[in-house]
Design a protein that fits this description.
This protein has no helices and 11 strands. It has strands at 2-6, 10-12, 17-24, 32-38, 45-50, 57-59, 67-72, 77-82, 91-99, 106-109, 113-118.
Length: 119
């Protein structure tokens, strides 16, 4: 499985951007899809998750009401729409694919895309 993130850029406080993560090398609908982020000097943190069909989502409290995760299964792509971004949203955003197995989950990570929010 390969994951390639894109869409990161410099954006002003209050602005919007959309991140994309292209999935290949497996069956996309076998995987729950996640976005994580890592700010400079901080640990990587969970941002959002979408279920296999896209019907269920969950978010870290700090982005609720501002970010929306979605997936396009025919296109093998997951998105993160980021609205009203704040300086604390700055970081590298990573896509993570998770497939449950009987012996434990299998997970794959992308290489990340940089988001910088200017104040």
């Amino acid at each position: 499985v390969q994951l390639v993130e894109s869409g990161g850029r410099l954006v002003q406080t209050g602005g919007s951007l959309r991140l994309s993560c292209a999935f290949s090398g497996g069956t996309f609908t076998d995987y729950q899809m996640n976005w994580f982020r890592q700010a400079p000097g901080k640990a990587r943190e969970f941002v959002a998750v979408v279920s296999w069909t896209g019907g269920n989502t969950n978010y870290v409290d700090s982005v609720k009401g501002r970010f929306t995760i979605s997936r396009d299964n025919p296109a093998n792509t997951v998105y993160l729409q980021m609205n009203n971004v704040q300086p604390e949203d700055t970081g590298v955003y990573y896509c993570k694919a998770v497939r449950p197995e009987a012996t434990g989950a299998v997970a794959y990570w992308g290489r990340g895309t940089q988001v910088t929010v200017s104040s």
